[in-house]
Amino acid sequence: MKRLQIWSGESHPDQLLLKRINIRNMRSRGQENVGMKKGYSLAILILIASSSIALTAFAQEQVDFTVYVHDGSLNGTALSGVQVTGQDAAGSSFSAITDSDGSAALSGQPGAWQFSFAKEGYEPLNLSYDVNQTTDYGDVYLQKST
Predict the structure, then answer these.
(1) Where are the domains of the chain?
(2) Looking at the domain covering 63-142, what would its CATH class be?
């Protein structure tokens, strides 16, 4: 590797050539640094974007909840065709109809949920329940209308 040498008196002819080489090298390094800065900027931007997506996903984590509806008591037969409506803890609405097993699968934000159960020939039922984990499930029963 050549080094720029300082000459006393008149400039040495090679000195001008070395200065040109050093100037070119500095420009090349500067361009590399700009490229590296752009690369770092892109990496930081991707990191920030992925972090905000992760935080959004974490903040909006949903839980699954299954409710089982019975006829007359918790030991009663399963009721199909029950309209299950309500809101999750974030205030988002949900709606489902129980299947032949009397169950309805729901998803939403964890916390206090509001439920309404309705089926023709039965008294409507409104209740609140804290749904905090996907493993949670609930059993309810409807009384026949008089």
Answers:
(1) 11-59, 63-142
(2) mainly beta
Q: How is residue 41 annotated by DSSP? A: H
Nearest-5° Cα angle at 90, 89 to 96: 70
Strand, helix or coil for residue 55: helix
pLDDT, one tens digit per residue, over 104-124 is 999 999 999 999 999 999 999
Tell me the pairing of strands 63-71 and 137-142.
Answer: parallel
- By C-alpha distance, which of 90, 126, 128, 96 is closest to 109? 90
Rounded to a whole number, what is the largest CA-CA distance in the chain? 117
Predicted TM-score (pTM) of the model is: 0.60
Query: What are 45's two structure tokens?
Result: 């931007």
